[in-house]
User: Which sequence fits this backbone?
């Protein structure tokens, strides 16, 4: 075949392709757990504690059992031989409450499961649940972590009266010297309130035990199918190879499904007891009550600096509201905050203490950003407070302290090694985009006219691509399989578990480019442990940076294989692989990958030392995290009469390295910014002193809506990451991390003429109104 | 999120529906307030009678200088009908502020009025419009004024067995300017406070003015102190500010997570001023 | 949640005090009360049905009257629970002769609610509590002097 007939293929990486997932998602034809229907499916409804803390005196299930259609009612003591809910985090001296899948004799939070009713349909199960009578001896709850630490506070777990689950210290450099050298010290208490993740799809489980095969199939809405299978197999005492876990379409997770939950084990156990498939679908109200919350910090921060603005060191006391139990990573999340506390700044002295505190609330755990939004908010607020103290421009103080390009790889005070970056360049681009100097002039005019205009800056850094295995509890590598089918169609199996991120599209783009096959010939599968090789899953902005890198290497191996087959078919030693063809440069003869695939499966031409077939599996261990960064600037104006905040402009410049699909990058950034603004302005998970979750529904919990969002002027700089062959860094969490402090800094800046230095989130209109009015009085 | 089981009837005539209601069945209109309560099992009615499908309750028409709005008219109907838009723009504007598009497509004026949510939007406009509310039971019909209809938090003049069948509002003379200004609770979309104003000019002065306020306290009310401080006074910003300051006079303001009593009262003053300003600018 | 307020009753302090200690009268005045049965010196078993808007639910609990200081003040506790949640209110009720006629009542205390009601009703709790208290005193006021 002559060379000229090889058509150059258009490269797809870097193109703004629409997601291939979208048609099924927006036409309602995707299969979520709720859509899984099996013959003889039964339904479970869980009876939950209405109290924050109580001893269970007795439970009467007789009325529920008597209800026609009810098959079984179980309470805590019925559950034997099931392990407790696992926590994968390990810290020195960590106290681990036994987290049973149904309450034993005490409940620790509102929503604590105390009984489960299984019936022929969901309505009967709910009626049955209403008939379960639980007699509680109500105890005093404690829901505020600082109150929980106060002497004489009620104890969440009687065995640990001080409510402390752990204390953790991390020090770097010489903090005493830094503070001794300081010309100025600023201090601030900064909180990061509880947030409710609220994925659009609540959790749900369908368990199907086949006793003859001793095999369990569990459909569950999770971000980590393989890890969940390993952990649940352990809890249920079944063999991993007889346990198929399927994460079907997953309608969002944001970290809340990076977990193993009591209900997953409970449904597995019930199905094993009854020999029937059972389904449990979490109601929205349950989602508020018992799916993990995010954040929950009270931080005491101190910065030591010189009068010229040079930061010397930072002290942090972090009180983490853990909730009543540990979920999978609960105690580990605040340690991520400490790691990222230095932000983008060039100081080497740090002293951090974490006090992990039990409260009668639902556990906190990973929620978009997981520890880094809290850290970024802390450091970015403190830098502004320092600038105010020194009467410096907040932009100038940042330039002064940035890690410089020539310092990379940069070892931080907390033991990380930042991979690459040019922070000043990205920040300057943001300042230019928004015309910073012009804005300051406008602001002076606004102030002269009695208006409250603010300009808020956040220059954030974050840690992505979780992560090297030494730093990740269950391993931080990722896997990919690439298979040519005999027809030349390609199947990719990724160990990640995308649920909205769009890897069915981006991984197909990458595969199409590497193998030279049309994108429509490529299918990307994930989320089924019986189909996909072991993988770690989706969290910590790792899908592309770790899973994509694993795929890239698998594709390289595949190309090598294809070349060997191609060379054998062309009866030559060396071929060039290009645009889906193997080409003999000497003769100009070529074969297509499709022809090669057919031949490899027919087994007629098998190159020396090779086996038939075209399948490659690659497990890849990343050498480091990646460290995206960026600058977000928000211009706002406050109405002093009502306290309402208007966002006038939002400029974001993010450096996330290379981009496989900028359209999906935009989506991730916009969604992330919405969640970050949600924390800054609206969202709060509020418990009252008795343990009631007051914001337990969308009537009172303010989810950001599209109409509440500003226009985001988004652009990028690009310093490719040296950590992986794609040069990508990760973008899943960047928007959430960058937006929050920019918003708060903007409003604080607006109100700074009143002497305001800090405002805790969420900055509700009433809070602002009180600040403005208080200052008048 | 799973309701108790219940019986559902969709009768063909109003008379039939009233008969079922007399026997203890509960009316269902748009279901936007009732169904969420049922799904949470905070309400467990045994028998629902669907009013929303009754043609007899589904109309907006003009008669003798008044608009008659059937109880089953949806918020969307009221927002968009040429009759309401053209002849009672205050009501149409208010309807546009209710919830979101899905809620407006299903929720009804009869359901909203009967429910008497203290943060509902319509009551402010109905107070300002001095609307009449027509109630009917199996044994007869009566008409009550808005002021007499809304009694307290979720409490109205409806007697057991009685339903709202119609709301009657005046056809607005062309010279009147009206406006509805709402501070919304960002989570639910309900009003923290909502103020409806009807303003007529008398030369350079304010003529007759009606102000209705919702959200501030247990039920909607006419802000007569504000009205009195406007009528006959020069139509200036000064008058507006001074008058609006009386918006919360003598009112026991609500307090919740989203607004303390003090803040709510202050918002009532701000939004009253906005509503008057806006209505004034629309008056001729 | 703090609850505080005032009410007026057209009685002498002695009569007002006595009315509020009388279970038959309380049973009539507590909104939705179906039964109030004596179970101890100062304690009564309460059954009530609350119907408010489309919300409805039955509660069982108790009423306790303590710290008697006739005719000036006493403490009252009302507590109940049912399928839709639970509630508890406790406070001091003071009676003083009004300058014009009758008595001024001032009350001050704490109220809690829990369960489903608490999670969905935040914006209504305050108003509802106040309305129920108002109804209670209105009912009392309608008793013969
Ligand atoms: C997300 C959301 C946001 C909302 N935001 C707002 C808002 O911003 N502003 C606002 O004003 N409202 C808001 N609502 C409420 C909405 O307007 C409801 O539609 C309205 O309150 C009730 O009307 P309905 O027709 O849906 O009544 P239903 O829910 O069917 O009934 C409500 C109650 O009234 C009774 N009832 C119904 N019709 C009659 C009748 N004709 N006569 C006597 N009794 C009757 C029912 O038995 C029931 O007790 C919101 C609702 C939701 C779900």
Assistant:
């Amino acid at each position: 075949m002559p060379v000229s007939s090889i058509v150059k293929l258009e490269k797809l990486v870097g193109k703004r392709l629409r997601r291939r997932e979208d048609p099924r998602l927006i036409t309602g034809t995707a299969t979520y757990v709720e859509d899984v229907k099996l013959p003889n499916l039964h339904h479970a409804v869980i009876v939950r504690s209405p109290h924050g803390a109580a001893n269970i005196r007795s439970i009467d299930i007789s009325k529920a059992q008597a209800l026609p259609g009810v098959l079984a009612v179980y309470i805590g003591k019925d559950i034997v031989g099931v392990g407790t809910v696992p926590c994968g985090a390990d810290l020195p001296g960590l106290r681990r409450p036994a987290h049973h899948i149904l309450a034993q004799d005490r409940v620790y939070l509102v929503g604590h499961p105390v009984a489960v009713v299984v019936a022929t349909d969901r309505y009967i199960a709910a009626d049955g649940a209403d008939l379960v009578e639980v007699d509680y001896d109500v105890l005093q709850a404690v829901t505020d972590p600082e109150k929980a630490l106060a002497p004489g506070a009620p104890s969440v777990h009687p065995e640990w009266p001080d409510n402390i689950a752990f204390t953790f210290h991390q020090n770097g450099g010489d903090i005493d010297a830094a503070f001794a050298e300081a010309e100025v010290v600023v201090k601030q208490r900064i909180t990061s309130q509880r947030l409710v993740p609220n994925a659009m799809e609540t959790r749900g489980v369908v368990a199907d035990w086949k006793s003859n095969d001793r095999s369990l199939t569990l459909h569950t809405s999770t971000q980590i199918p393989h890890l969940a299978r390993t952990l649940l197999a352990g809890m249920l005492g079944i063999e991993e190879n007889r346990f198929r876990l399927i994460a079907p379409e997953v309608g969002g997770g944001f970290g809340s499904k990076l977990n193993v939950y009591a209900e997953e084990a409970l449904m597995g156990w019930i199905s094993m007891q009854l020999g029937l498939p059972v389904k449990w679908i979490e109601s929205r109200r349950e989602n508020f009550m018992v799916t993990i919350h995010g954040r929950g910090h009270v931080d005491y921060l101190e910065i030591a600096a010189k009068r010229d603005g040079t930061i010397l060191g930072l002290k942090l006391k972090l009180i983490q509201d853990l909730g009543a139990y540990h979920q999978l990573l609960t105690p580990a999340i605040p340690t991520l905050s400490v790691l990222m506390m230095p932000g983008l700044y060039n100081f080497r002295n740090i002293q951090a203490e974490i006090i992990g505190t039990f409260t009668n609330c639902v556990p906190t755990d990973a929620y978009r950003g997981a520890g880094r939004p809290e850290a970024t908010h802390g450091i970015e607020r403190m830098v502004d407070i320092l600038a105010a103290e020194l009467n410096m421009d907040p932009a100038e103080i940042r330039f002064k302290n940035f890690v410089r390009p020539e310092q990379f790889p940069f070892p931080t005070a907390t033991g990380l090694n930042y991979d690459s970056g040019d922070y000043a360049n990205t920040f300057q681009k943001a300042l230019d985009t928004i015309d910073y100097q012009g804005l300051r002039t406008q602001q002076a005019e606004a102030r002269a006219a009695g208006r409250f205009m603010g300009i808020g800056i956040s220059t954030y850094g974050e840690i992505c691509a979780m992560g090297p295995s030494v730093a990740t509890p269950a391993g931080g590598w990722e896997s990919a399989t690439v298979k040519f089918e005999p027809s030349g169609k390609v199947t990719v199996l990724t160990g990640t578990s995308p649920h909205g991120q769009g890897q069915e599209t981006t991984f197909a783009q990458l595969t199409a480019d590497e193998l030279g096959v049309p994108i429509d010939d490529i299918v990307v599968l994930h989320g089924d442990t019986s189909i996909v090789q072991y993988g770690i899953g989706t969290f910590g902005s790792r899908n592309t940076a770790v899973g994509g890198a694993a795929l890239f290497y698998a594709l390289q191996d595949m190309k090598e294989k294809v070349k060997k087959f191609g060379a054998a078919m062309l009866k030559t030693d060396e071929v060039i692989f290009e645009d889906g063809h193997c080409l003999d440069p000497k003769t100009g003869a070529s074969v297509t990958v499709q022809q090669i695939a057919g031949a490899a499966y027919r087994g007629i031409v098998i190159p020396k030392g090779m086996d038939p077939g075209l399948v490659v599996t690659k497990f890849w261990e990343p050498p480091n995290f990646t460290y995206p960064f960026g600058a977000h600037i928000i211009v706002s104006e406050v109405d002093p009469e009502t306290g309402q905040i208007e966002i006038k402009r939002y400029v974001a410049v993010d450096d996330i390295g290379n981009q496989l699909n900028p359209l999906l990058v935009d989506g991730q950034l916009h969604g992330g910014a919405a969640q970050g603004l949600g924390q800054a302005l609206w969202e709060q998970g509020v418990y009252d002193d008795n343990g009631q979750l007051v914001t337990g529904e969308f009537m009172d919990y303010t989810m950001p809506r599209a109409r509440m969002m500003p226009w985001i002027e988004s652009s990028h700089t690009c310093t490719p990451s040296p950590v992986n062959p794609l040069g990508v860094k990760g973008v899943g969490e960047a928007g959430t991390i960058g937006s929050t402090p920019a918003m708060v800094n903007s409003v604080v800046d607006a109100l700074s003429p009143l002497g305001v230095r800090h405002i805790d989130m969420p900055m509700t209109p009433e809070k602002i109104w009180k600040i403005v009015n208080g200052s008048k009085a | 999120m799973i309701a108790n089981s219940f019986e559902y009837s969709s009768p063909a005539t109003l008379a039939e529906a009233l008969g079922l209601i007399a026997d203890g069945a509960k009316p269902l209109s748009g279901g936007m307030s009732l169904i969420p309560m049922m799904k949470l099992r905070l309400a467990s009615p045994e028998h629902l009678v669907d009013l929303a499908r009754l043609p007899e309750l589904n109309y907006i028409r003009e008669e003798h200088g008044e608009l008659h709005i059937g109880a089953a008219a949806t918020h969307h109907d009221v927002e968009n009908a040429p009759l309401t838009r053209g002849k009672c723009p205050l009501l149409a504007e208010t309807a546009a502020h209710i919830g979101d598009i899905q809620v407006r497509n299903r929720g009804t004026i009869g359901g909203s009025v009967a429910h008497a949510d203290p943060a509902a939007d319509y009551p402010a406009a109905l107070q300002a419009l001095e609307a009449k509310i027509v109630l009917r039971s199996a044994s007869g019909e009566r008409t009550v004024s808005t002021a007499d209809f809304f009694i307290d938090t979720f409490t109205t003049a409806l007697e057991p067995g009685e339903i709202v069948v119609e709301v009657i509002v005046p056809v607005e003379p062309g010279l009147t300017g009206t406006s509805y200004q709402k501070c919304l609770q960002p989570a639910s979309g309900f009003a923290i406070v909502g103020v409806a104003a009807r303003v007529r000019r008398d030369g350079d002065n304010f003529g007759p003015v009606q102000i209705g306020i919702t959200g501030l306290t247990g039920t909607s009310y006419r802000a007569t102190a504000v009205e009195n401080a406007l009528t006959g006074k020069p139509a200036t910003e000064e008058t507006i500010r001074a008058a609006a300051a009386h918006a919360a006079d003598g009112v026991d303001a609500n307090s919740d997570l989203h607004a303390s009593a003090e803040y709510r009262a202050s918002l009532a003053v701000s939004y009253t001023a906005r509503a008057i300003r806006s209505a004034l600018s629309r008056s001729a | 949640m703090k609850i505080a307020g005032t009410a007026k009753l057209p009685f002498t302090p002695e009569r007002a005090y006595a009315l509020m200690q009388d279970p038959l009268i309380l049973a009539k005045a507590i909104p939705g009360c179906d039964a109030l049965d004596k179970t101890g010196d100062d304690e009564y078993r309460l059954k009530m049905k609350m119907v408010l808007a489309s919300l409805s639910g039955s509660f069982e609990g108790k009423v306790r009257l303590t710290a008697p200081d006739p005719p000036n003040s006493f403490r009252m506790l009302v507590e109940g629970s049912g399928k839709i949640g639970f509630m508890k209110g406790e406070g001091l009720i003071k009676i003083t002769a009004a300058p014009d006629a009758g008595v001024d009542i001032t009350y001050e205390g704490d109220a809690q609610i829990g369960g489903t009601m608490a999670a969905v009703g935040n914006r209504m709790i305050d108003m509802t509590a106040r309305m129920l208290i108002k109804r209670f005193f209105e009912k009392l006021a309608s008793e013969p002097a």
Observations:
- Chain B has twelve helices and 14 strands.
- Residues B 26-34, 36, 51, 71, 98-99, 103, 107-108, 110-112, 114-115, 117, 120-122, 158, 163-164, 188-190; C 54 surround flavin-adenine dinucleotide (CB under 6 Å).
- Residues 261-282 of chain B form the longest helix (22 residues).
